[in-house]
Amino acid sequence: MVARVCRIRQSVAHDVERDRNDGHDGCREDQQVRVIQEEAAHLAQEQAQRRGVDAQAQAQAIIDEAVNEANGIRQASINYTDDMLNSLQTIITHSMEGAQSRFDAFISSMQSSYDIVSSNRGELAGSVTSVEETPEEAPAEEQ
């Protein structure tokens, strides 16, 4: 684009020099200068628009890359958290199973102790009844 403007300027300068040599007035030269200025302004505006579009596309690409990276990090953190929760769930399950088996053994031991105590009380109650009945039987033997 800059090269194009330079070529146009050279062409106009050449035309202006030729016209001076031909004896023309400066009106045509002024008109050509205005045309060159308008074209240069138009080319500069187009270039600025292209740069703006390019900058916007580059900014969008940066944003898209950042969003994709953030989504990747988010997914990785979700996967990590799920793995940790799965490990914790496994630990809790094993702890519950171990506690349940120990509790079952404890209950079994307590039931066994309860059964022994009940049996002892039954035997004791039977001997107390025998002792109470024995004094009554003793006077009968004396008679």
What would you say this structure looks like, in words?
With 143 residues, this protein is mainly alpha-helical. It is built from 2 helices and no strands. It has helices at residues 2-22, 27-142. The chain is rod-shaped.
Could you give the order of the helices and strands?
HH
Count the beta strands: 0
Alpha-carbon Rg, integer: 55 Å
Tell me the number of helical segments per DSSP (H or I, 4 or more residues long): 2
Please give the share of residues in helix.
over 70%
> Low-confidence spans: pLDDT under 50, at least 5 residues?
none
Most strands sheet = none
Give the termini separation.
148 Å
Shape: rod-shaped
List the helices and strands and how they pair.
Layout: H1 2-22, H2 27-142
Helix pairs in contact: 1-2
Notable characteristics:
mainly alpha
Summed up, what is this model?
The protein is mainly alpha-helical. It has helices spanning 2-22, 27-142.
